[in-house]
Amino acid sequence: MKRKVLFIAALAAIGLSGCKKFLDQTANPNLPSVSTPQLALTGAEKILADIPNGVSGGGYTNYGYWDGTWATSSGYIIQPAITDYNITTSNFQVWSDLYLNISNLKNLETLAAAAGAPDYQSIAQILEAYDWQQLVDNYNDCPYSQAFNPKILFPAYDKGATIYADQIAALDAAIAAITKNGSSSAPAGDDIIFGGNMAGWLAFANTLKLRYIMRQSNLSNFASLKTELNSTASAGYLNSTLDAEANPGYTLNDAYGGQESPFWHAYGYTQNDNPENNLVRANKYSIYLLHGLNDPRLPLFYLPVAEPTPGPDDTPGSIPPGTMVVRGLYLGDISTSADTNVEQSLSTVGPGLLKSASMNAVIFSAAESYFLQAEAVSDGMLTSSSTALTLYQAGITASFESLGLTDAQAASYYAQPSVATATEQNIITQKYIALNGYGVFEQYNEYRRTGYPTAIPRSADEATLGTVLPTRILYPEVEYDTNLSNVNAEGTIDQFTSKIFWALTTPIAAPTPSPAAHRLGNRK
Predict the structure, then answer these.
(1) Element (H, E) at 168
(2) Torsion 19-22-23-26 (CA) sign
């Protein structure tokens, strides 16, 4: 107590000016007062990788539930927002995370310009285009041209199609600048995606541009984009030896909110080997799809579990208890079985996806790049020395390789009659399979664009809203609180009828699965 009194007395003895200086809270000594392009790049890339991999903001786990990849565990509290499509202005939000990271990237552009580092400026443009596409693909129209103007407190909304066109032009500019400058100001270890390999950034920019253009295949002006698509073909595309993955040095450490790879942090295990996510289970739609195609990726996408002994409410099956199988349920399905082993006998995210806590974070996969090229060549949009079939097969092979399977296994798989041809349906279906886990948002985007793969079921929950799958999420509450007149100008937004500008205009049929479809008599 005496020491405390003396300390207070000492503070009181300091004059007013000294007190102000001593207790000044305007500067945080733990934060740098001046940033650099190097620091800004690493931070922005790390956040950019978090968002699609399920960590930052709301993540994209909801799209995996809705598109037939995952289902919610029936052994935990029911999740009505997920299983009933009860979408509000408060759930599934990535709005703030994306805008904050675009702000980081715009700051990187400013720092790079001041430092005379044009390669950093180009990288920032490419990464901004990656985030802007997610904003449009989640919300359609959004603040853009006025979004970062400090003189405008209430930014107006730009059309999604306008943002798309402007970002394609930005990607063109980045490609031209990198081609001109070579590696004059290339980053090094601060670039946690390509390590300063500017050829990688060229390929990433060009593949992202390809995605931007192919996403607009339903529009009347799609054919007119052919010249634009081919204008940068020489920049190349991501491939099996060069895809976009980030790694700042991930490690299995639960401190500071978790230092693991974001996908592992979202769906893997803690330092104490406890599951990070007790809700995600295999969806029977994907199980049946993969099983029907004799697909060896099935036990790599989903963790095999032991077939349980049937309980009193279960129909005995032909699989002996204890056999390792992949088992799941449909979204919204609730077990009425008295067998306590049922819940423990449902597959979770598999070992082909959950490699380790230090695994790379996938930003744009080689498989997706090949499937985009295959579709573009098949549609006559892209001039290539490779055929649509060759690119389609390369996409399948890249998916197999990413899971630890061999090229020979891939060749045997795509030799099957049901897989052999590079039709639009096959290309998109195989892309859907390849995007399992790391790319559930892109799965859902392509489903909304094409309607493939077919017959993805609605939730089995009896309280499910609507008659089709959700077409979008809603604008966030923060916009209604701070930018009301502009967000209201977008009209009434409905999760089943409001569509992203590039989506199919006709509703896609979504059958309802039979109740309790995960019971022991109904499995693969």
Answers:
(1) helix 160-181
(2) positive
Angle at 217 between CA 214 and CA 223, to 5 degrees: 95
Tokens representing 233 are 């073909």
The Cα 14–Cα 19 span in angstroms is: 6
CA dihedral 39, 42, 47, 49 (to 10 degrees): 170
Q: Is the dihedral of CA 204, 206, 210, 211 positive or negative?
A: positive
If we measure between CA atoms, which residue out of 77, 71, 121 comes closest to residue 331? 71
Q: For residue 72, give both structure tokens.
A: 């919610």
User: Partners of 157 in the beta sheet?
Assistant: 143
For 33-92, the pLDDT digits (tens) are 568 999 999 999 999 999 999 876 557 999 999 999 999 987 666 678 999 999 999 999
The Cβ-side half-sphere exposure at 122, using a 13 Å CA radius, reads 31
Yes or no: say if 302 and 100 are a contact pair by the CB < 8 Å rule.
no
Q: What angle do CA 50, 54, 58 make, to 5 degrees?
A: 100
> Could you tell me which of 318, 309, 319 has the C-alpha nearest to residue 339?
309
User: Which tens digits make up the pLDDT trace of 147-193?
Assistant: 999 999 999 999 999 999 999 999 999 999 999 998 788 999 999 99
Helix (H, G, I), strand (E, B) or coil at 185: coil
- The answer to whether the beta carbons of residues 508 and 468 sit under 8 Å apart is yes
The model scores a pTM over 0.70: yes
Rounded to whole angstroms, how far apart are CA atoms 127 and 113? 16
